[in-house]
Each structure stands twice: as structure tokens, then as C-alpha cells.
Design a protein that fits this description.
single chain, 354 residues, Rossmann fold, 2 domains, 23% helix, globular
């Protein structure tokens, strides 16, 4: 089965049409989401990002018209932003989500102020989603797409502060938007990675009338179909042969866990090292990439190459990582093809008809 978007591609050979509308990205990282919008034909005007190293990588690879290196808390209060940002088709954001991730400490970090990387201000991650919605209220884009971790819908997160997700819904509603959320799996969207993410997708109420339908007796929402069923891409399809790989200390390899049918990463520990280890199994889709992860191939204590990781993440093979670890940037990013699929459907079902 052919896939709608390639998982193996380069910037130098791409033709971004920029004819589907404008996008601005917050918490942009190295620009994974921005690549997705570009692949779908959107014009990405720029980004907001707090990390200088991530911003440097973003600017080198995206050459944005506008870039704002500052915390969302100060950016949202600016009153002199370019006029183009007040006429956006899509405002995109991936508020940092490690405090809700199943790979993190979850409840132990909720409500705590923390400094996450050198040069960054201290932040309470739980609040960043609502800082982002404050920016939505200022810019009033047609559509908002906010991505977050699956853990937001799990366990005590559904009770935290009287239900965190419900609070998101109520805050978007007060801002003038219909909001819905989807839990999507990248492996069903043409991405060689089992990555599940929650997407909150919002449509401004004054634009929604042509799309409204009765979901149930109490709920009216804009209709949007986001069902994807592209064939899975197992690791053997992207594995490179006869390439030089970085070796892994053999004693570590035995601690690596193999995939099971549910996928995921596995935490292991010995007295010398602590981290997330994973063996890529040839006949399965690769696990979710984590920013501080080690991935070896099944049959040898050798790590995946950067180009293999790019294919797993659907990043361009010629991405310039600067001095950042490739796994860090890709582990922190939404796979571009995942966003391209969503953005294509939003254009087809909503924006093209507004």
C-alpha cells in the first residue's frame, strides 16, 4: 500500500506549495510539527520557543519569517506582534508535557516549578497549556491544534485539579472555540513508529455553523473525521544494511528489552547506568522515541543510525541538528507525517470550505 506522505525524504528535494493557509507554531522545538504543515502545503510563518539550542536548529532548518525566543508567559502578552499573526489559519502548539507522560514521574511533578534545560526559566508545566490558550484569545486563529501525551487521559490525570482535560475544554469554550480531542497512533498514519498522542483541535465558533452536528442529546460539535488506517511500516523496511553503527557497551545490550505487541520503551537499571533501552525488532514497528533513549538493533549491540532515526521520526534525512543530539530533537517532536495527515484533513474538511 502506498502512503500519502513519504517517511524517507529530504529538504533539498521538497517543494512546499504554501497554498493551504498560514500557521504559527508555539513550543516549536526543532520543528517537527512545522515540517508536517509544510508537507501538507501550509505556509509556516514562524515560531515561539524557549530553548536557544532548539531555536537555533529551528532557524537553520526552517528559515522562519518570524521567531520569538522567549517563554510563552511573556510572548502571550505582546501587543506589537506582526499583523499576519492575527490572521492565522492555524495556531499550533505542543505544551511541554513530561509531567503527564507515562515515561516520567507524573503525580510527583504536578504543580511543581522546575527548570528543565540550561538557559530556561523555571516553569510549572501544568500551567503551560493555559498560557497557550491565553495566546489563542489574543491572536484568534481560525483553528487551534494542540498536541500532548497519551498520559493526559490516563489515571489520576483525569482527576487532577478537578479533571485537567475538562478544564482545557472549558477554557477553550470561554475563549470562543469548539474543542474536540483525538488519541491518534502514528503507526496508522504512515509513520514507522508506535507513537500515541492526544490532539485537541478547535474551531472558532463564528466559523463553525456550516460544520455543526448533534453529537448526542447535549453536545453540538463541528464534524471532523480523523480516522487513519495506513499500513504499518515495520523496522525491517527501514533498516540499513552494511552501515557503520555506533557500538553499545555489550554488557548493556543484555539489559535491553525486546518489543512486545503493545510496543513502548522499557526502563532498566544497573549500578552503572540508568536509562530507557529498547531493541528494535525487525518484524515490528519501532517504539515511541524518547529524548533520552538508547535504541539498538535486535541482533547486535549497535545503535540505530541517525538516518534510521530520521525515517522512524519522518524527519528529513538532511536535517541539520547543529550540536544537538538527534534523538533528543526527534524524541521531543511530533513526527512531521503525523501532523501532515491531520493538517490535510483539516484543510479538506474545514478550511477549504470557510
Amino acid at each position: 500500500m502506498l502512503h500519502k506522505f513519504p517517511y524517507e525524504w529530504t529538504l533539498k528535494d521538497s517543494n512546499f506549495t504554501k497554498d493551504k493557509g498560514t500557521v504559527f507554531s508555539c513550543f516549536a522545538g526543532g520543528g517537527g510539527s512545522s515540517f508536517g504543515y509544510k508537507l501538507a502545503g501550509f505556509d509556516v510563518l514562524g515560531c515561539n520557543e524557549i530553548d536557544p539550542k532548539m531555536m537555533k536548529a529551528y532557524k537553520v532548518n526552517h528559515n522562519p519569517k518570524y521567531s520569538f525566543l522567549e517563554p510563552i508567559q511573556t510572548f502571550k502578552n505582546k501587543k506589537d506582534l506582526p499583523v499576519e499573526l492575527y490572521n492565522l489559519d492555524i495556531l499550533d502548539g505542543s505544551p511541554p508535557c513530561s509531567s503527564f507522560s507515562t515515561a516520567g514521574n507524573r503525580e510527583k511533578n504536578w504543580g511543581k516549578e522546575k527548570k528543565f534545560r540550561e538557559g530556561q526559566a523555571k516553569q510549572v508545566l501544568d500551567n503551560l497549556f493555559f498560557d497557550f490558550i491565553d495566546l489563542v484569545k489574543e491572536l484568534k486563529p481560525k483553528i487551534v491544534i494542540a498536541e500532548n501525551v497519551k498520559g493526559l487521559l490516563m489515571g489520576n490525570a483525569m482527576k487532577y485539579k478537578s479533571n485537567y482535560v475538562n478544564k482545557i475544554y472549558k477554557t477553550f469554550d470561554k475563549a470562543g472555540y469548539y474543542v474536540q480531542h483525538w488519541l491518534l497512533n502514528a503507526s496508522k498514519m504512515g509513520v514507522p513508529q508506535r507513537r500515541e498522542r492526544v490532539f485537541f483541535i478547535c474551531l472558532r465558533k463564528d466559523l463553525a455553523k456550516p460544520f455543526l452536528h448533534q453529537k448526542d442529546l447535549l453536545t453540538i460539535i463541528p464534524k471532523l473525521n480523523l480516522k487513519f488506517s495506513e499500513s504499518k511500516i515495520i523496522f525491517s523496511k527501514i533498516q540499513e544494511k552494511n552501515v557503520k553503527r555506533n557500538p553499545l557497551i555489550k554488557s548493556y545490550h543484555k539489559h535491553f528489552k525486546s518489543a512486545n505487541n503493545n510496543g513502548g520503551s522499557y526502563e532498566t537499571k544497573n549500578k552503572n547506568h540508568f536509562g530507557y533501552y529498547y531493541k528494535c525488532m525487525k518484524n515490528l514497528v519501532c517504539c515511541t522515541l524518547l529524548s533520552e533513549q538508547q535504541i539498538s538493533i535486535e541482533e547486535a549491540p549497535e545503535l540505530l543510525t541517525t538516518s534510521e532515526l530520521c525515517k522512524v521520526s519522518t524527519f528529513p534525512l538532511d536535517y541539520n541538528f547543529q550540536k544537538n543530539k538527534p534523538i533528543y530533537i526527534m524524541g521531543m517532536s511530533v513526527p512531521p507525517v503525523m501532523i501532515a495527515q491531520i493538517a490535510t484533513e483539516i484543510y479538506k474538511q474545514w478550511l477549504s470550505k470557510i
